[in-house]
Amino acid sequence: MLVGRRVLVKGEVDSTNNIAKALAIEGEPEGTVVTASRQSGGKGRTGRSWESPEGGLYLSIVLRPELPAQDLTLLTVLSCLPVAQAIEEVCRVVPRIKWPNDVRVDGRKVAGILAEVCYRGGEPRFMVLGIGINLNTEPSALNAPEAATLKGVCGKEIDQEHFMNVLLFRLDEFYGKFRKGDRDLGVYTRYSESLGQDIEVRLGDQKVRGRGMHLDPDGALVFRSEDGMIYRATSVHDVVPLDRGQVRFDSK
Ligand code: BT5
Fold it and tell me: Disulfide check for 102: which of 39, 98, 162, 213 has CB 3.0–4.6 Å away?
């Protein structure tokens, strides 16, 4: 087992992604997982925040995939799959994946993924895959109107340790296959809420309505807009330059 061979369990932190990044810079081998019971500065993509009160699951994995940059984008997109599978296995509901990084139940977000790829000298050095799941979070503690919690969905408290074990097993299985070139796009498509569906995609400041067609090999979502234009939506992970003088993150 690679993913989860070392698991660091923390109380409150600013962001597990920041801790995992700091460890990775110091040479932490891949597979290490950092979890926390709360985050004071949980991060979403492009500067958004991730509400992280007690009861949720917050974890970040150090990965060193040695793959070209386009594969890292696809890896980010497809990593929703093991999260959805773990939820299905434990909660007996079938979640859907909204491209690029949302896992939803009945149209409400229960989990999100933030991958940060750190480059040095133009080359990807490592990737931190951060996953936030509203496990036993009290809905009243979440200031996110479209959120749902798994406790609410299942109608009972989820055993966090069991969930974590299932999730790490699924992530390890997924990552092992991905590194060998197995992309599991068929399985992904079955969980997708974006492929073959009518969707609305934000492109910059614009919202475009259309129908999801397929994923390009780099994880971009290809869709046809209502006026017949073909679009490629990209940009699924945050890029963190690690060249000297440009590193900025909080490590606690
Ligand atoms: C995400 O961003 O969905 C990525 C979330 C990743 C969180 C994990 S937790 C462990 C690791 N450490 C971190 O600091 N981050 C990662 P994005 O697609 O940008 O979605 C953010 C949006 O989701 C917000 O603007 C809110 O609208 C909504 N949101 C915030 N907190 C939420 C929550 N707990 N549940 C559901 N939706 C939420």
Answer: 98
198-208 mean pLDDT:
82
Ligand 1 pocket, CB under 6 A: 15-17, 39, 42-45, 48, 50-51, 58-60, 101, 109, 112-114, 130-132, 134, 142, 144, 147
Kindly report the protein residue whose alpha carbon is nearest to atom 27 of ligand 1. Answer: 144
**pLDDT given at position 205:** 79
85 alpha carbon to ligand 1 midpoint, in Å? 19
- Do the strands 108-120 and 33-39 form a parallel or antiparallel pair, or are they unpaired? unpaired
Residue 206: phi and psi, rounded to 5, are -100, 145
Q: Which residues contact 157 (CB under 8 A, 6 or more apart)?
A: 136, 151
Inter-residue contact 58 to 42 (CB < 8 Å): yes
